[in-house]
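Colleagues,

For the teaching module next term, I've prepared a clean inverse folding example: a structure given as tokens, and then the sequence designed for it. I'd like students to try predicting residues themselves before seeing the answer, so please don't circulate the second half yet.
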């Protein structure tokens, strides 16, 4: 004998609330049971950050010997990589918090990740353009290049914005030479410009430009002499071509906002911070060293907007003490537990089927004293 069941045409409000609560509980459990997993290329990242810290300590020791260390209120992490607010060779304004954030040696791991993302391998050529504005980040870039085993061709700009390597007696190119002479770096810049506005020190006094030229001379670097913007770009490109020996560059790294390197302020903002594998047609209209490389299909690593990069890779802003090596999202990433997420999703779908598509939900609610549905019942056999 067949039995006749009845169920309402509409889903009970009680069932809806039960399913909502169950789904929210499942979502909360998925968030609660996320796991931390190591990122790739961990060995190279750890090696680069360790090298960066060693280089910073060498520079700090020299600055301590020269009585040039900034006090704790300026350099709370004690990195030794923060300069003066103003000096005769200061080229532009600078933001202290960005300089403090850049001294984190774990940024070297970020550069390693971007180099590998660009396809750079041991023995590959990498072109580099940096100034003295972010000596801490310059160290991180050099450490990453060494850890990856790349062969960089570096063109430096001696000038520095506020809080950078702006002491006339110990500019960035002096620091770079120190690291090279102490065997911490196997490479150094092959040429240097004065830097600053238009890369020729516009706005600097004659005495200040002479100080910069003196620093370039004592570090035995060829001085870039072009005074025209386009000629200055071509002068740098000729050096990169000559140094390459006919080989292709696998990446170009820009640190800071050097006019010739980025293409004035418009070019600096046109490329995103970090790795750029392509650019729009409008961006390629902005002539600069970056654009010249991008036009040839060379990936660009654009090291600007330091705070934004720190946030993206889980590094602290303006740390009050030197961060330990291996600390930050660049080494470990929080991920959802795939097995648990799938289990929760299946349980929700099964519950929906049981409570909504069958008469179980109606009988379950009715059995618990739920309200009787107001609409006409639907027969079921």
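(Answer key — instructors only)
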């Amino acid at each position: 004998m067949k039995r006749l069941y009845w169920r309402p045409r509409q889903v009970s409000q009680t069932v809806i609330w039960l399913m909502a609560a169950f789904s929210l509980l499942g979502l909360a459990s998925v968030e609660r049971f996320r796991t931390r997993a190591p990122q790739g290329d961990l060995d190279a990242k750890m090696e680069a950050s360790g090298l960066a810290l060693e280089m910073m300590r060498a520079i700090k020791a020299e600055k301590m010997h020269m009585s040039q260390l900034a006090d704790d209120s300026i350099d709370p992490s004690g990195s030794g990589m923060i300069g003066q607010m103003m000096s005769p060779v200061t080229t532009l304004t600078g933001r202290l918090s960005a300089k403090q954030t850049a001294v984190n040696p774990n940024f070297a791991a970020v550069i390693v990740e971007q180099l590998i993302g660009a396809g750079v391998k041991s023995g590959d050529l990498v072109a580099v353009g940096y100034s003295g504005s972010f000596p801490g980040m310059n160290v991180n870039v050099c450490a990453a290049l060494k850890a990856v085993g790349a062969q960089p061709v570096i063109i430096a700009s001696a000038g520095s914005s506020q809080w950078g390597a702006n002491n006339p007696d110990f500019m960035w190119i002096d620091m770079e030479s120190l690291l090279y002479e102490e065997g911490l770096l196997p490479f150094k810049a092959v040429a240097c410009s004065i830097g600053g506005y238009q890369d020729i020190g516009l706005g600097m006094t004659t005495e200040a430009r002479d100080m910069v030229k003196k620093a370039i001379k004592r570090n035995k670097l060829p001085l870039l002499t072009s005074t025209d913007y386009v000629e200055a770009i071509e002068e740098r490109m000729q050096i990169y071509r000559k140094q390459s020996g006919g080989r292709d560059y696998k990446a170009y790294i820009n640190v800071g906002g050097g006019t010739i390197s980025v293409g004035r302020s418009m070019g600096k903002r046109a490329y995103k911070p970090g790795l750029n594998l392509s650019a729009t047609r409008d961006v390629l209209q902005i002539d600069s060293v970056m654009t010249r490389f991008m036009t040839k299909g060379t990936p660009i690593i654009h090291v600007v907007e330091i705070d934004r990069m720190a946030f993206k890779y889980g590094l602290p802003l303006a740390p009050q003490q030197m961060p330990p090596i291996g600390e930050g999202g660049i080494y470990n990433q929080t991920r959802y537990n795939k097995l648990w997420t799938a289990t929760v999703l299946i349980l929700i779908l099964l519950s929906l089927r049981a409570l909504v598509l069958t008469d179980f939900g109606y009988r379950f609610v009715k059995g618990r004293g739920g309200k009787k549905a107001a609409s006409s019942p639907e027969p079921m056999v």
